[in-house]
Design a protein that fits this description.
The protein is of the alpha/beta class. It has a single domain (3-239, 274-305), classed as Alpha-Beta Barrel (TIM Barrel). 38% of the residues lie in helices and 13% in strands. The chain is built from ten helices and ten strands. It has helices spanning 29-41, 64-76, 107-121, 140-153, 166-179, 210-217, 249-265, 269-279, 293-300, 309-317, and strands spanning 3-5, 12-14, 17-19, 46-48, 83-88, 128-131, 159-162, 184-190, 223-227, 284-288. Strands 3-4-5-6-7-8-9-10 form an eight-stranded parallel barrel. It is globular, with a radius of gyration of 19 Å. This is Aldo/keto reductase.
């Protein structure tokens, strides 16, 4: 599988990251193992999970995805070949409390959470550890100092953030530079080919903005990752309508061009979206998900799709 660097000088990771959000809950153990095996056999090494996955699927608190991954890596004896990412900050401290009861990003919460994640994952280090949701109630210096301590201790090898605004990412990087802390090497945001409507509400999730894209373009040391790149199947499945946050004339115009490029290339809509992300500027690393081996295979084949610069230009400029 094609490899990309996580930022200008970061570690090499698979161009398609496998999201493990529902593994161990909505996606049962048998299918989760099938998908993991299929991804690794295709040359993939980049797995994305979180300590709060997936509390909304019945348990009230997370940990199920990490637990399953730990069991799978132990059974396959392949931890050294996996680039493992997990997150802290959004797991409920009270079962059923949801995001209002999230653990946050205090020094105490981070140190407690990392040890719990390491235990569930049955490993002594995490390759990439994210601040999952920004915590405005805790000074950034405290959060970044805690992350730096984890890097210094060897429990974590790199750090990133998710669901942060551009100005917060810049502030965090400035603090890290002035204090000699490990910097955020990447940011993972909601991002897809369709653009959200003005004022679209995603609750705790933050969508990539034009400002963020320009920031990443001029800061090559930071990698951009996209979650929900395929809008949960809305590009291809009749039973999955386009989310209301994306509907409107702009979406209709972009879908029309997407359909044109799909016909020209012989690729599916999903494959064109993923290929666009990987070949656009800035390069975006998609976090893909699948609920069947067929879906995963379709996504993996996006790496074989070639888009011309003219096609990328048409996709970028499509609007109403």
């Amino acid at each position: 599988m094609r490899q990309l660097s996580l930022g200008k000088s970061g570690p090499q990771v698979s161009a398609l990251c496998l999201g493990c959000l529902n593994f161990g809950t909505k996606t049962d153990k048998s299918l989760s193992y099938q998908l993991l095996d299929q991804y690794v056999e295709a040359g993939g090494n980049f797995l994305d999970t979180s300590n709060n996955y997936a509390f909304w699927n019945g348990a009230g608190v997370g940990g199920q995805s990490e637990t399953l991954l730990g069991e799978w890596m132990k059974e396959k004896n392949n931890r050294s070949r996996i680039f493992l990412a997990t997150k802290v900050g959004a797991n409920p401290t009270i079962p059923g409390g949801g995001f209002p009861a999230k653990e946050g990003l205090s020094k105490k919460a981070i140190h407690k959470a990392v040890d719990e994640s390491l235990k569930r994952l049955q490993t002594d280090y995490i390759d990439l550890y994210y601040a999952h949701i920004d915590d405005m109630d805790v000074p950034l210096e405290e959060t970044l100092e805690a992350f730096n301590q984890l890097v210094q201790s060897g429990k974590v090898r790199a750090i990133g953030c998710s669901n942060h605004y551009t100005w917060r990412l810049e502030e965090a990087r400035s603090i890290s530079q002035s204090h000699g802390f490990a910097p955020y090497q990447c940011i993972q945001q909601r991002y897809s080919y369709l653009r959200p409507r003005p004022g679209a509400d995603f609750d705790v999730q933050i969508s990539v903005s034009e400002e963020m894209l320009k920031y990443i373009e001029t800061h090559e040391e930071i990698a951009l990752l996209a979650y929900s790149p395929l809008l949960s199947g809305a590009y291809s499945r009749q039973d999955r309508p386009i989310p209301v946050q994306y509907t409107g004339p702009d979406a209709e115009a972009r879908i029309a061009v997407l359909q044109e490029i799909s016909k020209e290339t012989g690729a599916t809509h999903n494959q064109v979206v993923l290929a666009w992300m990987l070949n656009n500027s800035p390069v975006t690393l998609p976090v893909i998900a699948a609920s069947s081996t067929e879906q995963l295979q379709e996504n993996l084949q996006a790496l074989d799709v070639t888009l011309t610069q003219e096609q990328i230009k048409r996709l970028n400029e499509a609007t109403y």
